[in-house]
Amino acid sequence: MKATIVTIGDEILIGQIVDTNSGYIAKALDKIGIQTHEMLSISDDKQHILTTFAALQNQVDVVIITGGLGPTKDDITKKTFCEYFNDELVVNDEVLAHVTQLIEGFYKRPINQLNKDQALVPSRCQILFNAVGTAPGMWMKKEHTVFISLPGVPYEMKHIVDHQIIPKLVREYQRPYFVHKTILTYGQGESMVAERIEQWENNLPEFIKLAYLPAPGRVRLRLTARGTDPVVLEKAIADNVESLAQIIGDIIVGFDEGETIEVMIGQQLMARNKTIATAESCTGGKIAQLLSSVPGASNYFKGSVVSYSTEAKIKVLGIDSELIAQFGVVSAEVASAMATQVQKILQTDFAIATTGNAGPTSEPGKAAVGTVFIALATPNDVMVAEFDFGQPREKVIDRTANKALEMLQKEILKFLP
Amino acid sequence: MKATIVTIGDEILIGQIVDTNSGYIAKALDKIGIQTHEMLSISDDKQHILTTFAALQNQVDVVIITGGLGPTKDDITKKTFCEYFNDELVVNDEVLAHVTQLIEGFYKRPINQLNKDQALVPSRCQILFNAVGTAPGMWMKKEHTVFISLPGVPYEMKHIVDHQIIPKLVREYQRPYFVHKTILTYGQGESMVAERIEQWENNLPEFIKLAYLPAPGRVRLRLTARGTDPVVLEKAIADNVESLAQIIGDIIVGFDEGETIEVMIGQQLMARNKTIATAESCTGGKIAQLLSSVPGASNYFKGSVVSYSTEAKIKVLGIDSELIAQFGVVSAEVASAMATQVQKILQTDFAIATTGNAGPTSEPGKAAVGTVFIALATPNDVMVAEFDFGQPREKVIDRTANKALEMLQKEILKFLP
């Protein structure tokens, strides 16, 4: 069973907004065994929309469209959607009552004509009620293809997908099974990993597909099994992951989507009843953001001091200005002091500190672009390592954050749970 | 002149990765007057790729493809790209020398066969040298369409787009002009704004298009003028923005892409030589991330304490546990104390604090989902406001962050630069 996801909106085609809706929908469809054939972003143009719909008609089973359902003149999806089905727009009383309550409740004003028009829907469509917004979703079938139109506001789209579309698809369609397993490795490059597992990869069964997802300092390996018997798929994946672990167990740090290194670090810290804080210069809060992105992080992540400026290092972290004058801001000594200071201030067991030059430029006599010091304070001592992460800026920041978490995890595991 | 951007990779179609490459490329093309007709994400499947290329042939002037150029078995773009042009892969010595230097330099090991294969390129293609990675970009023309293949790693793609593709397109193609102007408004809903400016909107000239970009708590209005004379376009945009400002000047907080409210706050703080810090509970660092995302933020953003837990509020921010016991964590009193405490600790002029229940659940006797207190400490006093931002969680967090920045800006502007 196949789906195509269509995003309508010039803001995406000029790069003003990144389309995160399609990924969310694709993930939800994948979980119930519906394969996303393509994702497509097109303009707020009637002809472009109609041509696209016609091309997708009977090519896939489901077309999910987001965007262009707002109340304003540039929102033409609903009219065009209705026209494609040769239908007419009629007022839906339930939607009208809901819109009225939302507008008068939140904005404390009577609804205007534009709000009222949001209750207009194609007479033959099935309404997908939008509990958190004014524009309803619409479900209409033509020949072999279901067309579903959703608002583009992410939390409205998500609410309708989770509470209406997925349950409805599960009820109404037979679907195959997909099983994914992602193996997270740190410290070796894609080509090196591929070389080590070449024979294993060649022996994978036909119905299992391997994908490499490289990022600075880490490579994710994704296994996907497709078939009709979930038990067979799960078994085959488990067996192959086991044999893979025997080959590259030394660089595997975790499994599966949720299990990023920050999620595992969270579990490992909680199991040991230990806490962590960060003091970040060149990573600008990236490590704190990764650690605090994990639900329940407040149990072990005590906070972060993002100290861009020398002044902040002195005032907020209490680094000795003499030390900075003597060794420079980008130095092992300052990194070490940042880690021990934030560990002391936030009273944590572990603390990470980063200082470096992520670029783009380097002052004469100062650290070269790519030079980074990572300090790690543990309950017992503090260690510092120097790296040259090259450029550009983005890569230096990613590599620094990934390497720091890798170093942290190694130290955490030295303590017994 | 039209372009279509194609992303190749199953990781996007299963929602494992969000495609940020296409938006970056579209923005770069838009700046030089090339219109992105469509964005397309397809699978790592030879037939799917070939069919897509054939469909785009002569439909647009430029096709930019990202992804699938890695060294591993699942990377099939280069072979397929070469096949589409009935060409053969040959070793490029410059690329081979570069790959050797990168691998031996960074990974400190001799290159393997997979690395060497990265130097294979179609014999007739123009190489787009990849200074920051191992996979080169490739430029090949067939009839009226140029096909450009790029690596999917974002910083590699960006480097080749910025340093090679854009300059080459500017040199080799005649292009029209686009002028965009984005007007940022806060505090009124899309339909309300549309009602107020309806007459102005109806009087816009044919060659100017208006788009509404709503988000919780704010609406961006984007004007786009297309034509051949940039002077005429700029003038028309300027005149219409001026007349718009006369209608909704009360809710306009800024103009243009870069000028988000956090960018303006940065300029306004610097002009007044004032500083800011945040103490965040329900926003979990969102406001700090917005403020610190602005280049040069270290001049005025001193840092943030993200205090999820009651314990962190007491230990790190030094909030009186009595106060929390008496009024509850989600209260005007605690919000106010958080703001004044972080202002004191980080020695700033202004401080924002947030505490609330973003959901999804609410404990009996505790604050309802959507209840948020925002406190703002200024050099003179501290103010607190209570809001009901409804649900879901994502909306509550966004609305809280936007409202807090809106409140902050109003207070900053009370001080003379």
From TrEMBL, chains A, B:
Residues 4-172 form the MoaB/Mog domain. It comes from the Bacteria. InterPro entries: CinA, CinA-like_C, CinA_C, CinA_KH, Competence-induced_CinA, MoaB/Mog-like_dom_sf, MoaB/Mog_dom. Belongs to the CinA family. This is CinA-like protein. It comes from Flavobacterium sedimenticola.
